[in-house]
Amino acid sequence: MAPEHITAALKKVYVAFSVNMVAQAAAIASLDAHDELMERVAEIVGERDRVRAALLEGGYEVPESQANFVWLPLGEQAAAFSAHALDNKLIVRAFAGSGVRVTTSTPEENDLFLAAALSFSR
Hints:
With 122 residues, the chain is mainly alpha-helical. It contains five helices and three strands, in the order H-H-H-E-H-E-E-H. 56% of the residues lie in helices and 10% in strands. The longest helix is centred in the middle third of the chain and has 24 residues, at 34-57. It is flat, with a radius of gyration of 19 Å.
């Protein structure tokens, strides 16, 4: 809570999605550990590609990804898929009427996701 002239001034200089000093220090430390960072990136890419291949084999449409997640364009089934994932103790990010974003995780967690996805009735 603040007077309108204060909030208006703050909105002019506020950086959306800003991070605190601890997060900035962690990011710099991660970038300084280049070899370890590249190893983690390779692991994520490998898992993302493995998950996508298993989903394609299971009959899903899965666009190629250059990120740390896969996208399932499920349309109107997005909410039902999200509920099914939650029933399997998994959280995915559903966009109602559009699709589901699934973050790449560890091999064990990805296996749990794949089991749930492949048991979803489409």
